Amino acid sequence: METIIAIDAMGGDIAPYSPVKASRLAGDFQDLKIILVGDEKKISFLMSGEEKSYTTVLHCDKHISMKDGISRKLLREKENTMRKVLSLVGEKKSDCALSAGNTAAFVSIAISELGLLQNVARPAIAVLLPNVSGSFSIFLDVGANILTKPEHFVQYGLMGSLYAEKVFGIVHPKVGLLNVGTESTKGGELRRQAFNLLSASQKINFIGNIEGQDLFTGKVHVVVSDGFTGNVVLKVSEGILKTFKTDLKREFSRNILGKIGSFILKGHFKRFTGRVDYAEYGGGLLLGVNGVVIISHGKSSPRAILSAIKLGKKIIENNFLQTLQKELNKI
Amino acid sequence: METIIAIDAMGGDIAPYSPVKASRLAGDFQDLKIILVGDEKKISFLMSGEEKSYTTVLHCDKHISMKDGISRKLLREKENTMRKVLSLVGEKKSDCALSAGNTAAFVSIAISELGLLQNVARPAIAVLLPNVSGSFSIFLDVGANILTKPEHFVQYGLMGSLYAEKVFGIVHPKVGLLNVGTESTKGGELRRQAFNLLSASQKINFIGNIEGQDLFTGKVHVVVSDGFTGNVVLKVSEGILKTFKTDLKREFSRNILGKIGSFILKGHFKRFTGRVDYAEYGGGLLLGVNGVVIISHGKSSPRAILSAIKLGKKIIENNFLQTLQKELNKI
């Protein structure tokens, strides 16, 4: 089965370098076609030739910058790289749209271009969080929807469970609600109602509230959260890991002993940082829109975009969108 | 100036061991008196004698456990260690109340026993978050108040600023609002209003929204947040650091090379973990109640309680409560 992935070549802080380099690195994947959408000249300049057998370039003059606020004018714009990759999915010319650009813009355009799946009121961004057991948990929503209502949590729980099951093969995935305490009454009216709705759902293996410290212990397979808290938590996690690494490196280079020690430990460090590096996990899946849409981190390296391509391929090969549609139609 | 600190000897997972041991370690501090409140037999059994010159034991039969939900019955109870340490402050027999027990219970009883300061609608728990520059930021609220209104953020900003200035000597401390983006329109109606109120305040050096990744970079001296997000973020941070340390240790003990390397780096590690260890930072200050109340982590070691004692002493020696009262009266 051939997979076609349309990539916004101008999206992200290291674009078009990261998307183009990632396309070249994707040569090892079987049955993959890539469409790079963006400034043809800039893209061609970065291409080496190796990727030409499976990569097409689709020229597009305009792209939305990271700083653009979401205005009505911006959303009405017909010609930009984001809209293009999404419309390719809408027209079935691509199986997946991918961008590392402005997340808020990409989510808004995805909704307008592809529409929502049946029985989904709001889409959610689901990311994979590495945990201490060497595995990961699915964490959603990390910021597609700031004004979360109780019923949205249930939709997140269901979509997250299906993602865990159908794409990653986790049987009967455990779902937890991110809260300030484990008791069902915690977290104000919003989460009390969400707790009750999640408990009542036959389709969700809801194990109750989980607290912040359990996000990285692998206690549950799927963690549902409102988009505000999810977004802050994700950025805090990234920030703390970055700070931790910088600080540790600095500490180790204080003197000659530290330098010797860290030289010896180089391989160990690399394995360890690989496990907690978001670049390995391919970015977020926009759940709830009628298409496979992957949102990569704004600071994506070529390797991070490559992971996103790999994730997209896996999602498509597992017919995830069709299953999700079917299951959502039933509720 | 003599400082008297009343400690709930039965509060926390390692009680009464941690509070009693901490009292002994506090012998180095000048002009300090400690009142240990709890089961006299258990406390006396753990005391060594050295601390007797500055430590009194006040017997109290009952204490609130970590698992007790906050019921009306619980809050009406007249005899428990938490109420006792707080009433000692209310009666001016102690300058500071300290507990590592059930946070929700301690906050509720503190409000009922001491009352709120003028112009404070809700108290907030302020913690010190270590940051990459080797310093720390003041972060509030981490869970005293889940139902945060726009005007509460301004009270937090003001109290946090005064805490930074009067206790830690930070001149004109920079204040940021934890949000999902830096633009003033981000984060829904609650934060939009909070942003405007914080901007309008003459007494707060508000520099705007900050995102999660900046929580540990020292970009601002004071970070204000609603209690729900603050609580989750604090627990996520603790969890991730714990996970990180465990994982790194395991990685380093995989083989002989790792063991040699980590032996060489032992001192570096210790310095590093000291900087990010919450035990060094003395727990949270309950801002907004009419008394100095310190809430230590439930898992507090003797060293963590000792840091809390040190923090309490510093707060009292700087006459912080009086200054706070005075400044709040002016608004």
Note the main sheet of chain A. 11 strands, mixed
Report the C-alpha radius of gyration of chain A, rounded. 20 Å
Order of helices and strands of chain A: EHEHEHHEHEEHEHEEHHHEEHH
What separation lies between the terminal Cα atoms of chain A?
30 Å
Please describe the topology of this protein.
The structure is a homodimer of 331-residue chains.
Chain A: E1 3-8, H1 17-25, E2 32-38, H2 40-46, E3 55-59, H3 72-76, H4 81-90, E4 96-99, H5 103-114, E5 124-130, E6 136-140, H6 150-168, E7 174-178, H7 188-200, E8 205-210, E9 222-224, H8 227-252, H9 256-264, H10 266-276, E10 284-287, E11 292-295, H11 302-317, H12 320-330
Parallel strand pairs in A: 1-2, 1-4, 2-3, 4-11, 6-9, 7-8, 7-9
Antiparallel strand pairs in A: 5-6, 5-10, 10-11
Describe the protein's architecture and organization:
The structure is a homodimer of 331-residue chains. By secondary structure, chain A is α/β, with parallel strands linked by helices. Chain A is built from 12 helices and 11 strands. The first copy, chain A, has helices at 17-25, 40-46, 72-76, 81-90, 103-114, 150-168, 188-200, 227-252, 256-264, 266-276, 302-317, 320-330; strands at residues 3-8, 32-38, 55-59, 96-99, 124-130, 136-140, 174-178, 205-210, 222-224, 284-287, 292-295. An 11-stranded mixed sheet of chain A has the order 3-2-1-4-11-10-5-6-9-7-8, with helices on both faces. In chain A, helix 6 crosses helix 12. Chain A is globular. The two termini of chain A are 30 Å apart. The mean pLDDT of chain A is 91. At the A-B interface, helix 8, helix 9 and helix 10 of A face helix 8, helix 9 and helix 10 of B.
